[in-house]
Amino acid sequence: MKKVTAFKSVLWTILGLALAAGVTRMIFGLGAITNQSDTTPWGLWKGFNVIPGIALAAGGFVVTAIIYVMRKHEYYRYAKIAVLMAFLGYLSAATALVVELGLPWMVWHPVVYWQHHSALFEVAWCVMLYLVVLFLEFVPVPLEETSRFAGVRRFLHKYKLILVVLGIMISTLHQSSLGTLFLITPEKLHPLWYTNLLPVLFFVSAIAVGPLMVILGVLTISAVYEKPLEREKLGKLALFSVGVLAVYALIRFIGLVAEGKLATMFVSSWQTLFFWIETALFVIIPILFLAVKQLRVSKAGLWVATISAVIGIGFNRANIAGIMLVRTGEIYIPTIFEIFISLGIISAAVLVFLFCVERFKMWETKWTDPRDRETAPPEFDRSSEAWLGSPRISHRFTFSFILIISLAFGFALISNERIHSEGIKEVPVKAARGGDTLYVDGNHDTFGVYFAHEDHIQREGKKESCVICHHMNLPMDESSPCSACHGNMYTEFDAFRHDWHSSPAGGNVGCMECHPEDQPRLAETAQSCEHCHKDLIPAGAEIEVDDYMAPSYTDAMHGVCVPCHETRAKQKEELKDLALCTSCHGFDHPEYLNKEIEMAFRDTSFNHVVLPFVGDLDKNREDMDD
Amino acid sequence: MKAILTDVTKCIGCLECVEACKEYNHLEVDVPRNWHRTDGLSAKNWTSILRKPENHYVRKQCRHCLEPACVSACPVGALEKTASGAVIYHGEKCIGCRYCMIACPYGIPRYDWESPVPYIRKCNLCFDKIRNGQKPACIEACPTQATIFGDRNELLTEAHRRIEAEPGKYIDRVYGEHEVGGTSVLYISDIDLGFLTYPVRKNTKPLPETTSTAMHAVPFAFTGMGALMGGIYWICKRREQLKQEKQQAKEDES
Ligand code: SF4
Ligand code: SF4
Ligand code: SF4
User: Fold this and answer.
1) For A243, what's the count of Cα atoms within 13 Å in the CB-facing half-sphere?
2) Which residues, in sequence order, are bridge partners of residue A449?
3) What is the pLDDT of residues A78-100, one digit of tens each?
4) Which of B70, B94, B101, B110 is the best mutation target for the ligand 2 pocket, counting ligand atoms within 8 Å of the beta carbon and taking the most?
């Protein structure tokens, strides 16, 4: 039983991760977990769990039809398995739907609000009815374990045929109406998949895959529990599918030809590639492997054919319900949490399936027709005793432990940001027309800033404030740059480099270091420099600095130097030139400093101003006199 | 039936309609997730202005189709086409299946992705205003009369009149007159407005008709399948019986 335990451990792990994601989805909404969006409103859960899941549950109605209606009694052994697989298939699709629906607690609404023209209304009704039918078909199996409810069991046995036929009728509608769902999207679905025959194709392909899915289930049981296989019988059942698959391929081909899409099949595009992969997986490989007698009755052949067909039909449904559906050029990639939930639902179904196989007489044959006893191979006679296992769940502790650990791990994976962050839409400012938050990246270097547009409108005086930035009086008029207002932040030759200061302070987080919290973040409201830079003005300096707040480097220098120069110029006759601009600036380039003076200023690091003439002013003057 | 006519050549892209819509419908500030790239429409923006080259501004909103795909798709009738022309939404019926979003050819309905109790969101033609004989908020806000409100037939006449009056100026087509069965939000324009919808098909058949054949076949398929199964059962049973009888006869002979 080692193999089984390992297999189950994996399933329980996935289930734990899925539970964590599922709980988060229920509390915080779809956005917290999924990448579905307004352009891809249906994601992994519809395209992977619900729609393919229901196709794969088709084994229930096809195999019961073969057994009870066509009276092929040799397959009785697989009836219980087929019904259980269908039941679990539908249950898991319904579970996925509950996670998927925005308002899952309203799921019963189709019962009261009738909409005959909606394909989804039909789907909803069929799912509900068929779940009931499948339940009634399956419930005798667990009831066999107890002597109670014998009446119920006998009653259900008696009307088995009616249940089976009812199930077939509902399934017919249901499988085909899943195809009808997509008839309403002629301009969205890729032409290789869109056809008026969609309902027919969905129905026929479901019939084809039904028996193959049941065979896959039987193969799995035999592999996991190391049980012998009736390969001949399975091969014969698979042959039925081959016929239906051929019919499916024919209908699809005729449809494409009739709608003039033959050329589309050979256009080189990834869609065409997907079309051929799908066709190969669902039609070509299974037919090749099952048409040959030797392969059909070999274990490997059955495995390859069934897996290929199952993946193929899943791919087909996923293409129609998602990949090829909304062609907006946007790519939807499911989040890891969506994948967890998808796999988790499947894991749960498999776990229940294994439980039923171990606990109930799924493999046993006596419950329907005594004639089957004679045809049953002898090795199965003891089987129920040998491997049905003990009635209680084994390894309870191990599995609980695994579940709890993976649940915790799943919760740990969910980032707080994804749930709480007020995400921001990145609008290149050139393309922006209004909007609440714009991403402004003027230099196209991805170091943009988020501009709170709506916030500015509200703060600057609602509608009247538009003209502050948008001039709106000239054609092709451009908006004012941010620097028109936020000059202090952006002027390049600023004494104060805002960007340099904001980074060490922690980017936007550190604003409060200088700006009072409840006031606009402006130069006027900021702390003065010496608030932090205590050493900015050396001790003993004569310069009186009152709220050192120079708007620019030029202002800073002029503010610091000029008053002193002027004072000195007045004091001494020979120093009168000090008051002239040319005492610092050259004649030829008035915007530059004289070489010597500039060299004196070179002794700066960053923008911490070192004042070379402060300190002993008299000594400086003597130096200058020399 | 009421309708809106938008003249793209007259729109200056001032976004007054967008603001008026937000104000009237109490739509909050939109903070979309950065992986949602949209055309400006969202659960909190029911109309948006698309900026196209050479100063063309095209307003996007629900088209209020005459035969809306969304209404036909909704399994619970949460969407309804009213006699006034507006396609309105009854949140209390909605189950959140989002099939309407799949069905809409213009990609209009939006979803409250962030909310644990999400609803479908889209323009409702200010249904409570037009019911009282008022104009929708966006129409009232438009400073250039680029978008006007009125009876659909009158607006169609007006649209054709404008196109005929200045033949060189407009594309000779009233967008929304025929597409997918016609819409209550019409456009005339000097640029092609094909981008407003998914690749348009040649035919202008209303979308609900695409599913109606299949939906009409439902009762027949249902009963037909039942009869077929009954027939097959009867044949198989009969065959077995005949076989048994033959065997019986053989045994009797021997
Ligand atoms: S544009 Fe879309 S949402 Fe609006 S009425 Fe038409 S189908 Fe419905
Ligand atoms: S999401 Fe709501 S309104 Fe849209 S189709 Fe589903 S139930 Fe109807
Ligand atoms: S008609 Fe009303 S709801 Fe629709 S876009 Fe205009 S303001 Fe918004």
Assistant:
1) 7
2) A440
3) 888 899 999 999 999 989 988 88
4) B94
